[in-house]
Amino acid sequence: MNFQHSVLSFVGFLFFASLPVASNAQDLIARQAPVDHRVKAADSISLKHLLTIERNEELKGLYPDFNNNSVHHYKGAAIPDSFRIDLRHFCMPTPSTKITSGYGYRPAFRRVHKGLDIKVYIGDTIKSAYSGRVRIVSYEAGGYGKYVVIRHNNGLETVYGHLSKQLVEENQVVKAGEPIGLGGNTGLSTGSHLHFETLFLGKAIDPALLFDFEHQDIVQDFYTFYNTDKSSDEKYASAEREGEKSNTISDVRYRKVKRGDTLESIAAELGTSVDVLTRQNNISAKSRLRPGQIIRFAE
């Protein structure tokens, strides 16, 4: 009996002695779980930080300087053959959906209107389309009136003209959606409106290719800029010398997608192929078209 009692006592001792070990092991596992979660979060933050650094390095070499004197100051800038512009994280500069004058050639002035005129009233809030840094806050009596130029983190520059008041200062860092001015009728203007330009290294891009004012949205998440054509002014000068009478930008046409449109139907209407449209608009043949989206076709 004494022997059996001793054995049972020893087994009992081992059982109870093992309990703290198991408990400690569970505590250890419990402590490790949040550590693993934090590691994953840290990895995610590090990756985003790395991507941001890489993107900033890519943008750093685009512009030769940060000049506060001239809207079109890009002397010495090497324009890449192509550049992918991230259009996400945007804010519409105004909730107004009425376009009073589009991008394109104006025969009366014999020059290209390099932006969109959007109907706003004096005192309406105008916001920065993207985050960035204010490059110019100035006044031009024979043109923009009171205007603001902002260089953005995605490589674009935006111009806001005919303001009644500027709410920012040069070199100020602004966020997307931050008020930068008030609508007005200053400068060369016949009625209150916002003149809105989108530029890449001085090359004007039709804002309608980037922004869908009617639906207060962007046309697509990314826009690829191609440095393959002459400037619009050069095209028109050449056309006039040759006696051409055209009110379109050279042979480039734009088609806004309507409900029920397909790439096939638009290609047939424009007299081209789906393959040409997909290449010129940087989309695939399987891309879903959205009403209001702009399709570009260059003959």
Please outline the helices and strands.
Blueprint: H1 2-60, E1 82-86, E2 99-101, E3 104-106, E4 111-113, E5 116-119, E6 125-127, E7 132-140, E8 145-152, E9 157-163, E10 165-166, E11 173-174, E12 179-182, E13 193-200, E14 203-205, E15 211-212, E16 217-218, E17 222-226, H2 232-241, E18 252-256, H3 263-270, H4 274-281, E19 294-298
Antiparallel strand pairs: 1-17, 2-5, 3-4, 5-13, 6-12, 7-8, 7-11, 8-9, 9-13, 10-12, 13-14, 15-16, 18-19
Helix pairs in contact: 3-4
Question: How would you portray this structure in words?
Answer:
- This protein is of the alpha+beta class.
- Strand 13 (193-200) and strand 14 form a beta hairpin.
- The protein is built from 4 helices and 19 strands.
- Helix 3 crosses helix 4.
- Residues 19-42, 47-54 and 230-250 have low confidence and may be disordered.
- The N and C termini lie far apart (106 Å).
- The protein is globular and about 50 Å long.
- Strands 2, 5, 7, 8, 9, 11, 13 and 14 form an 8-stranded antiparallel sheet that branches. A 3-stranded antiparallel sheet has the order 6-12-10, with no helix packed on it.
